[in-house]
Amino acid sequence: MRKRTGLDMRTSEPIGLRPLIAYSAPALPLSMLLMPLILYLPAYYATSVGLPLAMVGLIFSLARAFDGIIDPLIGHLSDASRGRWGRKPWLLGGAPLLVIATWYLCRPPHGAGLAYLGLWLFLFYLAWSTVQIPYLSWGVELSRDYRQRTRIAGFREGNLLVGTLLATGLPLLLGGGHPDLDTILAVFVGTTAILLPLAVVAAVSLTPAGPAPQAAAPIGLIAGIRLVAGNGPFLRLMGAIFAFWLAANIWNACVLLVMEHVLGLDTGTFLIFVLGQFLIGLMALPLVTRLANRIGKHRALAIGTLAFFSILLLLLLVPRGQAMIAFLPFALLGLVTPVVWVLPAATAGDAVELGILLSGRDQSALYMAFYNFAQKLALAASIGIALPLLGLLGFDPARGQPMPLIVVGIVLPLLCATAGALLLRGYPITERRHAAIRRRIARVHPHLATSVG
Description:
mainly alpha
């Protein structure tokens, strides 16, 4: 009988706690970088810097399109260049550029114009993809075991939750409760400039690179994309994840308006609610990973996401201006928040092995590039859907009618999440099927046996 190691005895490839913590460390500063990019920078360049709002929006849209285009290229190059050091050189090369781009983007000099914004925003996205895609791929390769992969994703996304807590709480703490945009961005720049290099060095030093497959004849990017497109379950999963993230981003686009015009609460109260939600989510993370391993990741993802957006309906029962009562739905959201953060990436990683079996090639980074692209497409689509639809339904911030916000901000996300859950009904890559795929790879593609564990 095998000696227990703190893991389920049916799992394989146990990963030590120290390398697991080290691998997950970069997720914390990386998550903190997303907050200013999404919430603060457009407003900062339009107000504090004084650039035309329409042109700022155009530059951010063009940079986002550039980001989506380069993702598959970064993934392809990362797969093609993998050697004994795995993905580590990409993180070591990309992290300094990411720190520099963040510094200049968030601390523009007096007189900075549109060209300045465009240059550093494009460099930021290039550096972000150079780090993020190999980083996610590295997590896929650390273990090919179904349950171990959930554990790896749980540690990584747990640090994302911690990073979000810090990104929300530090500006409030250092800004005296009412920080201006300059203070908020200075906090982000200073924190990430210290934490990101330290975290990357720790990860590279203490975490195994992951086994690299034997070299195969090189193929081009277009041929690699075609191979990924031939993985039907992966494309189906991407459709579901796109629907889930579309729902989440529509809610994010409307949440401040919902707080003000439906609940009658201010932005400061919202930040406190978010802190509470993610703190509860961090505590609920171990329970979510256990549930996912018990019932299957795809089932837990579908059920948990539906639960998340169903809880939003409880906001309609909250009396206007009652902050204590309004916090209760946000506390319930915290219980299922880890589902939305942890399980999409872990489930996507399981489809990589099917791609290896079908194509005879390990394209982990290219798969993760498509996963990243689905997230970014959902973010772009949510803005193009939520705000125009609010206008079409007659929402006017000056009048503050709640019904358009209820339809767009609460009902529509639930409908999107339901569509995603239906796509996962009968999803074929279960734990048992995943193990069978790994065994078959070892027989059909023995040169990739070390790659699949």
